[in-house]
Amino acid sequence: MVQIEQLAARTPAISVDEILKGFHPSPRFGDVSFTSYRPDPNQPSQAEAVKALEAFGATVGSSDGEGLFKRLFGKKASARAGIYLDGGFGVGKTHLLASLWHSAPGPKAFGTFVEYTNLVGALSFRKTVEALSSYKLVCIDEFELDDPGDTVLMSRLMRELADAGVKLAATSNTLPGSLGEGRFAAVDFQREIQVLADQFDVVRIDGEDFRHRGLPAAPAPLKTDELKHRMQAEFDGQTVAVDDFRGLIDHLAGVHPSRYRKLIDGIDGVVWRDVETITEQAVALRFVVLADRLYDKDVPILASGVPFDKLFSEDMMTGGYMKKYFRAVSRLTALAREGQVHEPS
């Protein structure tokens, strides 16, 4: 028996304290470590990244007075405050970032880029700096600059945290000096982008997407009239959110992305009827956040309609946000595989 709910009927509320308490790795990365990471032997940079992060982790909490020294004497530290993992999709950057977080002493924070910008929106910039300045480590996953406001905001936040002696670690699909390219007039904000770049030592990780490494192609979408039968087979005894795709898209417009994690709280699987190609940028960017939260919680998907590699329009897949969309397609494809484990009877 399946307990059926509907995401489009949920309007979650979340407090500032709940946001702060949520700054830790998702259940998918709740028990990872450097030793559980499996470097591709054909990609030496992966093993080298493990060593670099282990060495960086050893410095966390060992220079508490550095920030004060810099403020009093105006001298720069001998090493940069942060480490920045640059690489393609599915090479294990989040696994390694979470491993660093698990190995480091607290207090510490782990969140996606959008979760930090949401925190500033909830607390204010100054209170966010005050809250995080006492931390030994701040980890920022999926670092991407979507607009000029984010560029200025994160430039200031990273600079002030580094000045306070906080160690920074980030992952992205884009080198820090190239953040914002193709999204807005990045040249007009080069100073802020350079300030960001100056906080980090860059570690490159090469490799192919592990979600596709040696795995079969993504499963084809189901027919809409097959969904109920497959849902009973895949999710017996679990709670499943069943939504018409268009209705879900419309509902997300009224739910702040900071609430998407709570939106899917208690959901073991999702079923989407009649998935269609998204053609509006704002809608697509919201849906990327939902895809990330579903992947964080390892929520399997059953869907009818267009396949996930057609979820975003061709213009989007070649535009300034293409890396976001490719990551979302990769993650949704992985969840769709998990949603079709059993053969239909």
TrEMBL record:
Keywords: ATP-binding, Cell cycle, Cell division, Nucleotide-binding. It holds the Pfam family AFG1_ATPase. The keyword Transmembrane helix does not apply. GO terms for cellular component: cytoplasm. GO terms for biological process: cell division. Transmembrane segments: none annotated. This is Cell division protein ZapE. The gene is zapE.
